[in-house]
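In the design runs reported in the main text, the only information available to the sequence generator was the tokenized backbone. The following block is the verbatim input for one such run; it is reproduced so that readers can re-run the procedure and compare outputs position by position.
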């Protein structure tokens, strides 16, 4: 799911009946908003606090990084008593009431993060979130963004990820015999129309291909969570119509649409009005995952290479969720997120939040090497000082790094 998706805007679209998901720019820092301790990033968390925190924790776990306890505690503090999560609660000590706008996407992402946080110590909290999600399942087997809202491909797929994360088979989670897979099948276009998935039907019940929804639905049809998405064996992606396609074939159909759409430029374009010719980095990262889990690393190579060459500025601007998306894309495609176009994505993600408890062995070794090098340099400088050599320029010339 695109890192820029706004909970408030999506809720508004439900009110006015817009079927196509609306993407909003990441919220900017607010002078009146003090960023809570333990939260990743420095922008206003009103619309994406739980989402970006969850993605950051999942990406760190997949990178063998153990997050700081206060990062996990911050996420735990956002959970309501019934298990649900809102996009952000400024007063977590205050009990949730009817005014708190809980949603399925924040809850499902948090469930996935908590399932791996603390070496499994918070699985009960993850299960509590999943049980709330199950209580809000629609009669068609899917979920909308808000409780009771019409099912959409993105929300249904991220909930499938939460079910996977706590060890539940999505096909066995049903409402009146309808599972999440049934809901996604209803949003799939036939092969003559590309094999893509729609976000939701329009007011007349017509389906329109949506790349963002397709990338999400492919992962959903594979029954995978963000953390469990791993590359399949290399295989050709072909679309094959069937009256009731099994989940794997439905996923392959969606992936074939993405592969065809990415064939020319190697990236997906924004669906925002006025920005149709601009790259959509987050959606492209999600497409890499979708292609990798269906067609293997070879199928994902072109968009992955494009991201390696072009996503640095986007990730820096959008912070932890963007870094997490890129890490998960690299990981799913069998690439190294610590050398992503020359950038260490894991190091960049870690710098957006509280210092992790532990780091990857290779990262520790690199830091040790740097430290040892630093000792020898300063030892030489000390000798120089004794000899009367001025070193003021060495200190004044050092640049201070900035945290996102």
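Verbatim output:
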């Amino acid at each position: 799911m695109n890192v820029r998706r706004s909970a408030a805007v999506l809720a508004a679209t439900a009110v006015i009946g817009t079927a196509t998901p609306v993407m909003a720019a990441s919220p900017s820092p607010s002078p009146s908003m003090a960023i809570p301790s333990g939260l990743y990033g420095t922008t206003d968390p009103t619309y994406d606090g739980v989402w970006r925190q969850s993605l950051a924790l999942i990406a760190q776990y997949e990178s063998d990084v153990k997050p700081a306890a206060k990062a996990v505690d911050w996420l735990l503090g956002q959970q309501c008593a019934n298990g649900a999560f809102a996009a952000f609660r400024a007063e977590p000590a205050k009990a949730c009431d009817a005014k708190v706008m809980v949603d399925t996407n924040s809850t499902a992402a948090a469930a996935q993060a908590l399932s791996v946080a603390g070496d499994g110590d918070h699985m009960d909290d993850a299960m509590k979130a999943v049980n709330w999600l199950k209580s809000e399942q629609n009669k068609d087997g899917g979920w909308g963004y808000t409780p009771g809202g019409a099912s959409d491909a993105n929300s249904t797929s991220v909930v499938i990820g939460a079910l996977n994360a706590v060890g539940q088979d999505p096909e066995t989670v049903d409402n009146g015999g309808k599972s999440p897979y049934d809901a996604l099948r209803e949003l799939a276009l036939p092969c003559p129309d590309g094999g893509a998935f729609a976000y939701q039907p329009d007011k007349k019940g017509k389906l329109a291909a949506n790349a963002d929804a397709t990338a999400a639905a492919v992962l959903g049809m594979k029954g995978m969570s963000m953390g469990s998405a791993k590359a399949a064996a290399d295989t050709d992606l072909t679309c094959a119509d069937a009256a009731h396609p099994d989940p794997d074939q439905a996923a392959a159909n969606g992936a074939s649409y993405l592969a065809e759409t990415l064939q020319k430029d190697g990236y997906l374009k924004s669906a925002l009005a006025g920005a149709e010719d601009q790259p959509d980095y987050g959606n492209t990262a999600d497409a890499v995952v979708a292609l990798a889990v269906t067609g293997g690393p070879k199928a994902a190579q072109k968009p992955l290479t494009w991201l390696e060459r072009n996503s640095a500025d986007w990730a820096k601007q959008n912070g932890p969720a963007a870094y997490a998306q890129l890490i998960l894309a690299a990981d799913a495609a069998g690439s190294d997120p610590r050398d992503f176009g020359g950038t260490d994505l894991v190091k960049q993600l870690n710098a957006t939040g509280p210092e992790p408890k532990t780091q990857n062995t290779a990262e520790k070794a690199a830091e040790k090497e740097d430290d040892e090098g630093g000792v020898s340099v300063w030892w030489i400088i000390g000798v120089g000082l004794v000899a009367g050599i001025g070193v003021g320029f060495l200190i004044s010339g050092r640049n201070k790094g900035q945290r996102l």
